[in-house]
Amino acid sequence: MKIIDFIKKNYIYLSITALGLGIYIILFPVISDFLNRFSETLTQCTYLKITGKNCPLCGGTRYIRNLSNVFEDVTYLFHPFGIMVLCVIFEIIFRIYCLYKIRKKAVTNQLIKFDIMIHSIMVIAFVLYEIIFMIQNS
């Protein structure tokens, strides 16, 4: 219960941070060209630069830029990165809902428990995706 109370007290900061991160991930392909003008280091994959191998997220920027292909080929959504993008879009919608609940002072323990559960599942799924990617590409 102490964890729930701690999270409840700081829930607005968690929600704002997660919302900002989700928006940044979706907008990164748009702002990457702008960032590239200042420094190419900001948009390079560090993992690829150090190891010379693709990382699990390689192609993510290209994927989001070409998201309009969904209308031509629905299987585009079933690419592993497409599922991650859908999770990020879910995160943005969920955080807007959470901020609405915070504003109405209606944050409940069930909402926080759901938040912890769904994000635990997402983290586990992402780690499994990375492990499978590393095994396939080794």
Low-confidence stretches: none
Calculate Rg over CA atoms: 18 Å
Number of strands: 0
How far apart lie the N and C ends?
43 Å
Instruction: Tell me the overall shape.
Output: globular
- SS strand fraction: under 5%
Q: Could you describe the 3D structure shown?
A:
The chain has helices spanning 2-9, 11-38, 46-51, 60-65, 80-103, 109-136. By secondary structure, it is an all-alpha fold. Helix 2 crosses helix 5 (80-103) and helix 5 (80-103) runs antiparallel to helix 6. It has one domain (2-136).
What topology emerges from the helices and strands here?
Elements: H1 2-9, H2 11-38, H3 46-51, H4 60-65, H5 80-103, H6 109-136
Helix pairs in contact: 2-5, 5-6
Question: Key terms for this structure?
Answer:
single chain; 138 residues; mainly alpha; 6 helices; 72% helix; 0% strand
In brief, what are we looking at here?
With 138 residues, the chain is an all-alpha fold. Helix content is 72%, strand content 0%.
